[in-house]
Amino acid sequence: MPIRLPLTCKILTGLSISLLLSGCFERHRTTDSLCEGYPALCKELNVNDGQCRIQRTTLIWQRYDVLKNPTDQEKFKELKDTQKYIYCLEYAARIEPTELKERKTIRMNALYDSYNNITRLNNELASSSDPEIIYYRWSQGDELAQNQFLELEGKPELETPDLQLALASYYISKDKDKTYQLLHHALSLYKKNEVVNQEIIKSLATLSQQQEKLKEAYIWVLIANNMNMPVTKSKKVANLFLLTEDEQNRLNKKATHILENLRNGSYKQNMVN
């Protein structure tokens, strides 16, 4: 006759199994212990070197995340972290160490190995259906990826601010009105307290001016200034557009209202009209 465990025992047993399964992954608390437990994660990297320490550490832990959860998104993060590591190594490889001359050789080996890893990760992600990865492949010159990305237009997969900005970048030289709508839609997708991509604001300021929507351009410059973006100061724009003091005051209030709604995740395009 089978023995029935009390509910509490079942929960504890399930929890114990879960902890046993994940224990080997979660016992590491330092990068050194992680490298000892999983040497392949740190192989060919310039370990024990002060150069590129932050980028190297981030990459090692991201490789660990891929080991635990080898999804396309995790591999894409590894690819981006590898690129950051490469940027640092390309500079570090030119530095002549005053001691331990072999460090330069180690850095060069790490650099070449990282190039190979970029190729490997690109190959592994070549058939990914993730829209962020498709856009990345397009940005690297993959024409097939461009077609795949454009086929997603209007679908839920592209309903994020950054992907709408990516779509807008395609239409900027083809359809400025559509680009304008896409940029506004991108802003409407932000949730409360999310950080707004500065490129959306700067693009709206530029596009509004090109379309001779001068008061809107002034509003976006005000917002850009408030977000500490490197754009022309609003006072210069006001003088350029010949705005009266009353117009400036009214547009200042409108810009403040838009900023509040961007921060609250409740922006709508009609707020700028």
TrEMBL record:
It comes from the Bacteria. PROSITE patterns: PROKAR_LIPOPROTEIN. Pfam families: DUF2989. This is DUF2989 domain-containing protein.
